Every structure is written in structure tokens, then in C-alpha cells.
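G., the chain you wanted modeled:
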Amino acid sequence: MKIAFTSCTRYEAFRQQPEWKYLLRQKPDFLFLLGDNIYMDWITNYCQPKFYPLDEFKAEMLKKYQRQWDEMHFKAVRESFIKRNGFYGIWDDHDFAWDNACGGDMTSPIDVAKKEFSRNMFHHFFNNCSTNQPEVYYAIDTPKARVIFLDNRYYAQEPGGNSTILGEAQFQYIAEKLVHNLEYTVLCGGLTLTSGPDSWRKNYPNDLQRLSEMLTAKSKLLFLAGDIHKNEFISPKKLKNGVSTPPQIISSGMQIRQVTDRHNWAVLDFQASGLTVNFFQSDAVQKPLTDKCNQWLRENGY
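Predicted structure as C-alpha cells:
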């Protein structure tokens, strides 16, 4: 079984996206998109949908999705996975609302309306992939792994103090879904746990500690993430009370332009002999990073 995953796709940066065909050549069974699937706050320059009237916000989001979803290479990939029930995703700030948006603090009538429209658009364009509607957090079972998709935007509060990124109901949902008999457990989040300025460790340390404590009982567990515009493997990091974060496998910047063009994606390959990961940039394997990740997985019984 193979799972391909990536994040961060800005149509305005790449109106032609042939790199998606390289992903198909690996013959994955599933494609997970881990947030920033459109960029609400980019047209030709940075803009502020936070201040749009509701009708303008709706029209802009619909246009953004339609343009990305109709790009011929992405459309071919997406339709291929939909036919075999293999297309899943989550969102992050740029496709939830705007840069660093925290839905838990969006309480005005117009902001609530924007949140609900965004969630409806997610479900529509992701082919109703959530098994827990109307929520964007949900879980699926694959032949080798239970996959739990997190929503780190709709209920998130502005960082500070005891702020939460998930909210209590989502934590309870995760606890329930961690009970299963499949060999692997995979959590998917838009934000990394420990890397970058928007990580859980920097902004939501209490939730990071709580989540990591919940995950300690599961063997062969991985955390997949996007956001940081690069591929990266992060081995467990020590927290308080002898608890460590899960290993993080990050792929971000499939269609993004930052310093140099980024076309990053990754594939989890589940074989009878164990799990391996390949990190790609366009059609080339990033060998040092791939070797580093797979050595850790082998040494730790994956």
C-alpha cells in the first residue's frame, strides 16, 4: 500500500502543474493533501480576505478552488484517486480563511458565515471525504493503517496562555479513534508539531504535550504535516514528564515559489517487510533525506 502526500498549492504561482504526473508514476493508492490547497490571500500580490464583504469572500474562494481543481494535471490526478476512493485532505490557514486565521476567535456574524462557507467548500471540493461531517477532522481505515485527519483551524484560538489548537471535542474524537487493531496509526495535520514559526511547540505547547501523551500507547505511529515549504523528517523530541513527540514526516510546497521553485511531495510505502518513505522534489528522490528517514524507521521497528 502506498500513500502519497503533499501540501501548499498556489495556482497563481504555477498555472500549469505537470509535476502531478510524477506522483502518479509511483502508483500510490491514496493521495492526502495536507492544507493550503488554495491561497485565499494571494491574487497577484498579498491581499486581505479578512476584510472582504461576505459576497466577495465567497466569490473569491469559489474561483480559487475552481481554478486549482480545473488545472488539467491536478484534475487528472484527483479524478484518478476519486475513482478508487483514495482522495483525502484537510485544510490550513490559507484555504480555511487567511494567513494565521484562528477560527475559535472568529465570532462576529460575518466571520462565522465565512467559516461555514469555507467548510462547505472544503466538503464540496474534496468530494465529501470527511467521515465526520460537518467537521473537517475525521478518520479512515486503510488496509495497513488507521488515518486520523486533524483540523487545526476551525477551533484554534490565538496563541498564548492555555490556548488550544484543537478544542476539547476534537481531543475526545482522537482518543476514540486511537483504539483500533490495524498495524499503523497515521495522524495528519496542517501544521508541524515542532518545526517553523507556526508549530504546535511554539504556539500551543499545552496541546502538544496533551496530544503526545495520548499517542505514547500506540506503536508504529507517524505524524504527517505540511506548511513549512520543504520536505523534512523530524525524529521524536522530548517534552515534559518523559513524553516525546511522534516522528514527523513533512512534505510541503508542491506548487509554491519561495526562493526557488518547490515541487515537494512524499510517498509512504507499506510492505510486508516494513515501512519506507521516499521524499521527492519534482521527479527526483531527495536521497540524503530519504535515507535518514528510512534508517530511523528501520532502527525503531517500523
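The longest helix spans residues 54-70.

Shout if anything looks off.
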